[in-house]
Amino acid sequence: MGSSARLRQYMNDDGPLILDGGLATELEAHGAHLQGDPLWSARLLHTDPQAIRDAHYRFLLSGADVVATATYQASIKGFIDHLGVSSEGARELLMSGVHLAKKEVERFVSESPTKGRSRPLVAGSVGPYGAFLHNGSEYTGAYAEQMSIEDLKVWHRPQIECLAAAGTDLVAFETIPSIKEGKALVELLREFPDCKAWLSFSCKDEKHISDGSLFTEAVQIANKSSQLVAVGVNCCSPELVEPLLDSAGSLLSSELTWVVYPNSGEEWDTQQGWLTSAEKSGSVPKLSHTWRKQGAALIGGCCRIGPTQIAELRCKLKGSSTSAEQQD
Protein backbone atom coordinates (compact mmCIF):
# COMPACT_ATOMS: atom_id res chain seq x y z
CA MET A 1 0.00 0.00 0.00
CA GLY A 2 1.41 3.41 -0.96
CA SER A 3 1.90 6.15 1.61
CA SER A 4 -1.03 8.22 0.29
CA ALA A 5 -3.39 5.25 0.52
CA ARG A 6 -2.13 4.43 4.01
CA LEU A 7 -2.63 8.02 5.08
CA ARG A 8 -6.23 8.02 3.81
CA GLN A 9 -6.81 4.81 5.73
CA TYR A 10 -5.46 6.43 8.89
CA MET A 11 -7.68 9.45 8.46
CA ASN A 12 -10.74 7.17 8.22
CA ASP A 13 -9.86 5.14 11.32
CA ASP A 14 -11.52 5.84 14.67
CA GLY A 15 -9.62 8.17 16.92
CA PRO A 16 -7.01 10.81 16.11
CA LEU A 17 -3.47 10.21 14.97
CA ILE A 18 -1.09 10.76 17.87
CA LEU A 19 1.92 12.82 16.83
CA ASP A 20 5.24 12.70 18.65
CA GLY A 21 6.57 15.47 20.89
CA GLY A 22 9.57 17.77 20.83
CA LEU A 23 12.44 15.87 19.24
CA ALA A 24 15.06 18.39 20.37
CA THR A 25 13.60 18.29 23.88
CA GLU A 26 14.02 14.53 23.97
CA LEU A 27 17.54 14.68 22.52
CA GLU A 28 18.58 17.25 25.12
CA ALA A 29 17.04 15.15 27.89
CA HIS A 30 19.50 12.42 26.90
CA GLY A 31 22.59 14.60 26.81
CA ALA A 32 22.63 16.43 23.47
CA HIS A 33 23.78 20.06 23.55
CA LEU A 34 21.68 21.91 20.97
CA GLN A 35 21.03 25.40 22.33
CA GLY A 36 22.65 28.04 20.16
CA ASP A 37 23.49 25.59 17.37
CA PRO A 38 22.52 27.00 13.94
CA LEU A 39 21.60 23.48 12.82
CA TRP A 40 19.84 22.56 16.09
CA SER A 41 18.87 18.87 16.17
CA ALA A 42 19.75 18.48 12.47
CA ARG A 43 23.46 18.54 13.39
CA LEU A 44 23.04 15.11 14.97
CA LEU A 45 22.20 13.68 11.55
CA HIS A 46 25.94 14.14 10.97
CA THR A 47 27.44 13.71 14.45
CA ASP A 48 25.17 11.26 16.28
CA PRO A 49 22.46 9.64 14.13
CA GLN A 50 21.97 6.89 16.71
CA ALA A 51 20.74 9.46 19.22
CA ILE A 52 18.06 10.49 16.73
CA ARG A 53 17.07 6.89 16.11
CA ASP A 54 16.77 6.23 19.83
CA ALA A 55 14.61 9.33 20.34
CA HIS A 56 12.27 8.28 17.54
CA TYR A 57 11.97 4.84 19.10
CA ARG A 58 11.10 6.23 22.53
CA PHE A 59 8.29 8.26 21.00
CA LEU A 60 7.01 5.19 19.13
CA LEU A 61 7.03 3.20 22.36
CA SER A 62 5.12 6.03 24.04
CA GLY A 63 2.28 5.68 21.54
CA ALA A 64 3.09 8.05 18.68
CA ASP A 65 1.42 7.16 15.38
CA VAL A 66 3.60 9.70 13.55
CA VAL A 67 7.27 10.58 14.08
CA ALA A 68 8.73 13.74 12.54
CA THR A 69 12.22 13.73 11.07
CA ALA A 70 15.16 15.69 12.51
CA THR A 71 15.11 18.05 9.54
CA TYR A 72 13.22 21.08 10.88
CA GLN A 73 16.34 23.26 10.79
CA ALA A 74 18.07 21.30 8.03
CA SER A 75 18.88 22.78 4.64
CA ILE A 76 21.35 22.19 1.85
CA LYS A 77 22.98 25.59 2.40
CA GLY A 78 22.99 25.17 6.18
CA PHE A 79 24.80 21.83 5.99
CA ILE A 80 27.32 23.20 3.50
CA ASP A 81 27.97 26.33 5.60
CA HIS A 82 28.14 24.72 9.04
CA LEU A 83 29.43 21.21 8.34
CA GLY A 84 31.65 21.86 5.32
CA VAL A 85 30.05 19.04 3.33
CA SER A 86 29.47 19.05 -0.42
CA SER A 87 26.11 19.75 -1.99
CA GLU A 88 25.62 16.04 -2.59
CA GLY A 89 26.70 15.26 0.96
CA ALA A 90 24.17 17.78 2.24
CA ARG A 91 21.40 16.14 0.22
CA GLU A 92 22.35 12.72 1.57
CA LEU A 93 22.27 14.06 5.12
CA LEU A 94 18.83 15.57 4.63
CA MET A 95 17.52 12.33 3.15
CA SER A 96 19.02 10.42 6.05
CA GLY A 97 16.52 12.08 8.36
CA VAL A 98 13.77 10.09 6.65
CA HIS A 99 15.85 6.90 6.50
CA LEU A 100 16.60 7.00 10.25
CA ALA A 101 12.94 7.46 11.16
CA LYS A 102 11.83 4.69 8.81
CA LYS A 103 14.38 2.29 10.30
CA GLU A 104 12.94 2.91 13.75
CA VAL A 105 9.41 2.33 12.47
CA GLU A 106 10.61 -1.00 11.05
CA ARG A 107 12.26 -1.86 14.36
CA PHE A 108 9.16 -0.90 16.30
CA VAL A 109 6.85 -2.96 14.12
CA SER A 110 9.11 -6.01 14.35
CA GLU A 111 9.95 -5.84 18.06
CA SER A 112 7.04 -4.26 19.90
CA PRO A 113 3.49 -5.33 20.72
CA THR A 114 1.25 -3.32 18.38
CA LYS A 115 -2.19 -4.86 18.85
CA GLY A 116 -4.81 -2.36 17.76
CA ARG A 117 -2.26 0.00 16.23
CA SER A 118 -1.64 0.71 12.57
CA ARG A 119 1.84 1.01 11.18
CA PRO A 120 3.32 4.39 12.25
CA LEU A 121 4.02 7.06 9.67
CA VAL A 122 7.07 9.26 9.06
CA ALA A 123 6.52 13.00 8.56
CA GLY A 124 9.33 14.89 6.84
CA SER A 125 9.77 18.08 8.84
CA VAL A 126 10.17 21.36 6.94
CA GLY A 127 10.69 24.44 9.08
CA PRO A 128 10.32 28.06 7.97
CA TYR A 129 13.08 30.01 6.28
CA GLY A 130 13.48 31.87 9.58
CA ALA A 131 14.79 28.70 11.22
CA PHE A 132 17.81 28.80 8.88
CA LEU A 133 18.40 32.46 9.77
CA HIS A 134 18.71 31.38 13.42
CA ASN A 135 17.63 34.77 14.73
CA GLY A 136 14.19 34.09 16.17
CA SER A 137 12.40 35.34 13.07
CA GLU A 138 10.55 32.04 12.72
CA TYR A 139 8.30 33.51 15.41
CA THR A 140 7.73 36.82 13.64
CA GLY A 141 7.93 36.08 9.92
CA ALA A 142 9.55 39.50 9.39
CA TYR A 143 11.94 38.11 6.76
CA ALA A 144 9.03 37.42 4.38
CA GLU A 145 8.51 41.15 3.86
CA GLN A 146 11.75 41.29 1.85
CA MET A 147 11.14 38.03 -0.04
CA SER A 148 8.81 37.12 -2.87
CA ILE A 149 6.76 33.94 -3.04
CA GLU A 150 9.19 32.73 -5.71
CA ASP A 151 12.15 33.44 -3.40
CA LEU A 152 10.56 31.29 -0.72
CA LYS A 153 9.78 28.50 -3.18
CA VAL A 154 13.39 28.48 -4.37
CA TRP A 155 14.56 28.15 -0.77
CA HIS A 156 12.23 25.32 0.19
CA ARG A 157 12.36 23.31 -3.04
CA PRO A 158 15.59 21.33 -2.41
CA GLN A 159 14.51 20.32 1.09
CA ILE A 160 11.18 18.97 -0.15
CA GLU A 161 12.92 17.24 -3.08
CA CYS A 162 15.15 15.35 -0.64
CA LEU A 163 12.35 14.36 1.73
CA ALA A 164 10.18 13.16 -1.15
CA ALA A 165 13.05 11.23 -2.74
CA ALA A 166 13.77 9.53 0.59
CA GLY A 167 10.20 8.23 0.74
CA THR A 168 8.63 10.23 3.54
CA ASP A 169 5.00 9.30 4.13
CA LEU A 170 3.97 12.95 4.26
CA VAL A 171 5.55 16.38 4.67
CA ALA A 172 5.08 18.48 7.80
CA PHE A 173 5.31 22.21 7.07
CA GLU A 174 5.86 23.41 10.64
CA THR A 175 5.89 26.62 12.67
CA ILE A 176 5.18 28.73 9.58
CA PRO A 177 4.92 32.35 10.75
CA SER A 178 3.77 34.19 7.65
CA ILE A 179 0.90 34.10 5.20
CA LYS A 180 3.30 34.64 2.30
CA GLU A 181 5.38 31.61 3.24
CA GLY A 182 2.22 29.55 3.65
CA LYS A 183 1.16 30.52 0.13
CA ALA A 184 4.59 29.65 -1.23
CA LEU A 185 4.52 26.19 0.33
CA VAL A 186 1.03 25.43 -0.98
CA GLU A 187 2.15 26.44 -4.47
CA LEU A 188 5.41 24.49 -4.21
CA LEU A 189 3.63 21.34 -3.06
CA ARG A 190 1.97 21.13 -6.48
CA GLU A 191 5.40 20.36 -7.96
CA PHE A 192 5.35 17.12 -5.93
CA PRO A 193 1.96 15.67 -6.88
CA ASP A 194 2.55 12.39 -5.03
CA CYS A 195 3.19 14.16 -1.72
CA LYS A 196 0.62 14.72 1.01
CA ALA A 197 1.32 17.29 3.71
CA TRP A 198 0.04 19.26 6.64
CA LEU A 199 0.54 23.00 7.11
CA SER A 200 0.99 24.27 10.65
CA PHE A 201 1.42 27.88 11.72
CA SER A 202 3.06 29.55 14.70
CA CYS A 203 0.62 31.95 16.36
CA LYS A 204 0.97 35.04 18.53
CA ASP A 205 -2.48 35.19 20.12
CA GLU A 206 -5.99 33.76 19.98
CA LYS A 207 -6.72 34.98 16.44
CA HIS A 208 -3.44 35.76 14.67
CA ILE A 209 -0.46 33.88 13.32
CA SER A 210 2.99 35.24 14.09
CA ASP A 211 3.18 37.86 11.33
CA GLY A 212 -0.10 39.40 12.52
CA SER A 213 -2.30 37.90 9.80
CA LEU A 214 -5.57 36.35 10.85
CA PHE A 215 -5.55 32.59 11.35
CA THR A 216 -8.72 32.54 9.25
CA GLU A 217 -6.66 33.73 6.26
CA ALA A 218 -4.16 30.94 6.84
CA VAL A 219 -6.95 28.36 6.80
CA GLN A 220 -8.35 29.76 3.56
CA ILE A 221 -4.93 29.32 1.94
CA ALA A 222 -4.87 25.68 3.00
CA ASN A 223 -8.36 25.12 1.61
CA LYS A 224 -6.98 25.75 -1.88
CA SER A 225 -4.71 22.69 -1.82
CA SER A 226 -5.88 19.20 -2.74
CA GLN A 227 -2.66 17.73 -1.30
CA LEU A 228 -2.96 19.04 2.24
CA VAL A 229 -4.60 16.68 4.71
CA ALA A 230 -4.60 19.12 7.62
CA VAL A 231 -3.97 22.71 8.68
CA GLY A 232 -3.41 23.98 12.16
CA VAL A 233 -1.03 25.27 14.80
CA ASN A 234 2.12 24.18 16.59
CA CYS A 235 4.62 25.52 19.11
CA CYS A 236 2.11 27.91 20.66
CA SER A 237 0.71 27.77 24.20
CA PRO A 238 -1.91 25.04 24.63
CA GLU A 239 -4.35 27.67 25.90
CA LEU A 240 -4.37 29.38 22.49
CA VAL A 241 -5.44 26.32 20.53
CA GLU A 242 -9.17 26.27 21.32
CA PRO A 243 -9.84 29.94 20.45
CA LEU A 244 -7.70 29.71 17.31
CA LEU A 245 -9.64 26.72 16.02
CA ASP A 246 -12.91 28.35 17.01
CA SER A 247 -12.01 31.48 15.07
CA ALA A 248 -11.76 29.55 11.80
CA GLY A 249 -13.88 26.46 12.37
CA SER A 250 -16.61 27.52 9.96
CA LEU A 251 -14.04 28.03 7.19
CA LEU A 252 -12.32 24.65 7.30
CA SER A 253 -12.80 22.65 4.10
CA SER A 254 -14.50 19.27 4.41
CA GLU A 255 -11.36 17.81 2.80
CA LEU A 256 -9.16 19.01 5.66
CA THR A 257 -8.84 18.38 9.37
CA TRP A 258 -7.04 20.19 12.16
CA VAL A 259 -3.47 19.37 13.16
CA VAL A 260 -2.56 20.54 16.66
CA TYR A 261 0.72 20.18 18.52
CA PRO A 262 1.44 23.03 20.93
CA ASN A 263 4.41 23.35 23.22
CA SER A 264 4.15 22.89 26.99
CA GLY A 265 3.14 26.50 27.60
CA GLU A 266 6.19 27.08 29.78
CA GLU A 267 8.13 30.31 29.44
CA TRP A 268 11.64 30.70 28.06
CA ASP A 269 14.04 32.92 29.99
CA THR A 270 17.30 33.89 28.26
CA GLN A 271 19.20 33.66 31.56
CA GLN A 272 17.56 30.66 33.22
CA GLY A 273 16.29 28.68 30.23
CA TRP A 274 12.87 27.02 30.49
CA LEU A 275 10.93 27.96 33.61
CA THR A 276 9.64 24.50 34.42
CA SER A 277 6.03 24.02 35.47
CA ALA A 278 4.67 20.53 36.09
CA GLU A 279 1.12 21.85 35.75
CA LYS A 280 1.78 23.31 32.32
CA SER A 281 3.75 20.35 31.04
CA GLY A 282 0.64 18.22 31.54
CA SER A 283 -1.75 20.60 29.82
CA VAL A 284 -1.53 19.04 26.34
CA PRO A 285 -3.09 15.72 27.41
CA LYS A 286 -5.55 17.61 29.65
CA LEU A 287 -6.83 19.87 26.85
CA SER A 288 -6.69 17.32 24.04
CA HIS A 289 -10.32 16.21 24.36
CA THR A 290 -11.44 19.77 23.61
CA TRP A 291 -9.34 19.86 20.45
CA ARG A 292 -10.69 16.48 19.43
CA LYS A 293 -14.26 17.77 19.85
CA GLN A 294 -13.31 20.69 17.61
CA GLY A 295 -12.38 18.22 14.90
CA ALA A 296 -8.63 17.76 15.29
CA ALA A 297 -7.53 14.41 13.86
CA LEU A 298 -3.77 14.87 14.33
CA ILE A 299 -2.75 15.80 17.88
CA GLY A 300 0.66 15.83 19.55
CA GLY A 301 3.20 18.08 21.20
CA CYS A 302 6.09 20.37 20.35
CA CYS A 303 8.83 21.88 22.55
CA ARG A 304 9.04 20.51 26.11
CA ILE A 305 6.64 17.64 25.36
CA GLY A 306 8.38 14.29 25.80
CA PRO A 307 7.40 10.63 25.58
CA THR A 308 5.73 10.69 29.01
CA GLN A 309 3.26 13.35 27.88
CA ILE A 310 2.68 11.56 24.56
CA ALA A 311 1.85 8.36 26.45
CA GLU A 312 -0.62 10.32 28.59
CA LEU A 313 -2.07 11.89 25.45
CA ARG A 314 -2.64 8.51 23.82
CA CYS A 315 -4.30 7.18 26.96
CA LYS A 316 -6.59 10.23 27.14
CA LEU A 317 -7.65 10.07 23.50
CA LYS A 318 -7.54 6.37 22.72
CA GLY A 319 -7.77 4.77 26.12
CA SER A 320 -5.07 2.28 25.18
CA SER A 321 -1.79 1.45 26.84
CA THR A 322 1.44 2.05 24.99
CA SER A 323 3.94 -0.56 23.94
CA ALA A 324 6.29 0.67 26.66
CA GLU A 325 3.61 0.02 29.28
CA GLN A 326 2.86 -3.39 27.80
CA GLN A 327 6.54 -4.33 28.13
CA ASP A 328 6.80 -3.28 31.79
What is the count of β-strands? 10
Low-confidence stretches: none
Strand percent estimate: 5-15%
Mean model confidence by pLDDT: 91
> Compute the gyration radius: what is it?
18 Å
The sequence of SSEs as H and E is HEHHHEHHEHHEHEHEHEEEHHEHH
Written account of the structure:
With 328 residues, the chain is of the alpha/beta class. 46% of the residues lie in helices and 14% in strands. The chain has helices spanning 3-12, 23-29, 44-47, 49-62, 76-83, 87-111, 129-133, 149-165, 179-189, 215-222, 238-248, 278-281, 283-293, 307-318, 323-327, and strands at 17-18, 66-68, 121-126, 170-176, 197-201, 228-234, 257-261, 267-269, 273-275, 296-299. The protein has an 8-stranded parallel beta sheet. α4 packs parallel to α6 and α9 packs parallel to α10. It is globular and about 50 Å long. The mean pLDDT is 91.
Key words describing this protein structure:
two-stranded antiparallel ribbon, eight-stranded parallel beta sheet, 328 residues, alpha/beta
Question: Could you write a compact summary of the structure shown?
Answer:
The protein is α/β, with parallel strands linked by helices. It has helices spanning 3-12, 23-29, 44-47, 49-62, 76-83, 87-111, 129-133, 149-165, 179-189, 215-222, 238-248, 278-281, 283-293, 307-318, 323-327, and strands spanning 17-18, 66-68, 121-126, 170-176, 197-201, 228-234, 257-261, 267-269, 273-275, 296-299. It has an eight-stranded parallel β-sheet with strand order 1-10-7-6-5-4-3-2. Strands 8-9 form a two-stranded antiparallel ribbon.
